[in-house]
Amino acid sequence: MKKGELSAQEAVIEAKRYLNNAKEILREKGAKEDGFYQDSKYVKMAGHTAYSGVLFALDHYFGKKTKGRKDVDWYKSNLAQQDKKILHTFVSVYEQLHLVMAYDGVGDAEVIKLGFQRAEIILDWVETRSAA
What we know:
This protein is mainly alpha-helical. Helix content is 75%, strand content 3%.
């Protein structure tokens, strides 16, 4: 199924599936101990999966970019035009899920929890905007 074939509602449901998969990866393989996930391989995998879900929802919401690949600045500029508050939430998600988790493999459970919560805020925002 191609991204363009999904309704807005279906795209958000799919994005939430990504986020749930990320949580499941950590729950099953992250080896949480004393507030930290011990296995950075699975922290990285979960961070990438969760961030990909956020981008999936935003891609569906904003549509196709006309030239070149999308980068974080493309998402930031699109969000800035619509809602400054959600822009700040996105920057936080980018830093926590993409940089800290997916690249660095930092397994601080509180940081991860916050990243997931902020991802959910973005998905809810997309869902609300798409329904309007």
